[in-house]
Amino acid sequence: MNDHALDGYEISTDPARLDADLVHYWLATDAYWAVDRPRELHDRAVAGSLNFGLYVSGSGRQAGYARVVTDHATFAWLCDVYICRDDRGRGLGTALIEAIADHLTPCGLSRLTLATKDAHGVYEKVGFRTLVSPEQWMTLGLIDPGPVDI
């Protein structure tokens, strides 16, 4: 893990530490994939996920968030990765993703997947790559807005 990037920050999976109001605000107002996400939907997503908070050491102020939907055995989906605008540019997103991968490694998962429109470089630093055989993957979009233009 990139411990240098985490100087002055810490990561926790303790749900009691999450600032639910702040995380919802970040995602619903500043994350292209979740803009206008209703609070009730957000709360259900958080309740059904493994949540990671990034905090400023000492003050405890939340500086980032990510969640993982997983069975802890075969598969995981990384989503809702967000770093507070005031804390960006310090490698914290990469450090958070590395910590998540390290946390999940003992589970022996076959894969950890994600979708991104614009942060490929961040995830590639941790070892993510595009799908080798995308033709093998399918999706059922029950509420599918279709592809997002860049």
If you had to describe this structure to a student in words, what would you say it looks like?
The chain is globular, with a radius of gyration of 15 Å. The mean pLDDT is 92. It contains four helices and five strands. It is an alpha+beta fold. A hairpin with a 5-residue loop joins strand 2 and strand 3. A five-stranded mixed beta sheet has the order 1-2-3-4-5.
Low-confidence stretches: none
* Count of distinct strands: 5
Strand content: 15-25%
Helical coverage, percent range:
25-40%
Radius of gyration: 15 Å
* Count of helix runs: 4
Structural class given helices, strands, pairing?
alpha+beta
For the terminal residues, how far apart are their CA atoms? 31 Å
Regarding quaternary structure, how should these chains be classified? Answer: single chain
Summed over residues and divided by their number, the pLDDT gives a mean of 92
Side by side, the strands of the main sheet go 1-2-3-4-5
